[in-house]
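Quick one before lunch.
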Amino acid sequence: MHSIISRIVSVRQRIKTAAEKAGRSERDIVLLAVSKTRSHMAINEAFEARVHAFGENYVQEAIEKIDRLKEKSIIWHFIGALQTNKTRIIADRFDWVHSVDRMKIAQRLNNHRDPAQRRLNICLQVNIDNEASKAGLSTTTVGDAVKQVLELPHIRLRGLMAIPAPRDNESAQRSVFARVRTLQEEINSGLDNSQKLDTLSMGMSADLEAAIQEGATVVRIGTDIFGPRERRAE
Ligand SMILES: *Cc1c(COP(=O)(O)O)cnc(C)c1O
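Model of the pyridoxal-5'-phosphate complex:
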């Protein structure tokens, strides 16, 4: 049995090795622990190992954990499918949303964000492999969405998020992540310095090395921190 702490040590080592190979600093890469389906105790264990950012996919489950852990200085990231009737609570309780895939959601998050809070950090999800089964903006529409989101006063647009289809070798993984990076570079070339996107949310347990090689600044790791997930009962 591996403990959460020992798994975190090895994930951090993988991040460090990949960063060094890419000539980057590990400090420029955020380890986002994906805690969907995990208990607040498991989150607390990871927190004790100095993981401070957690990603959740299901609103109700997330809110229970956020309430239980409210004394801890945790940064909560929403990374799941977004429904319009959940935007109010997400805008209220999360610091980041990675999975914004349509303007309507961005507008609603903006409208519901309390102006007294810091701006809500968001990433636009890009459907980089054009999969019918997956959420995300197409590579051809993301540029327009960026311009519109930049107008929203209570949102801080940070970058792009992608979940590519699985590939079994590192060079194939790298080439799809490189497309996300290039897309972000193209977008940035049209933006003022103050607006430039600084976040690339890409890389999971199976492909974090390839993502870091291609510029990921946030890797979203579930299984390799908490162990295999049980199937979620719907
Ligand atoms: C579940 C999930 C992850 C984590 O995946 P693992 O393969 O368990 O590391 C990352 N990103 C998103 C959007 C997820 O839903």
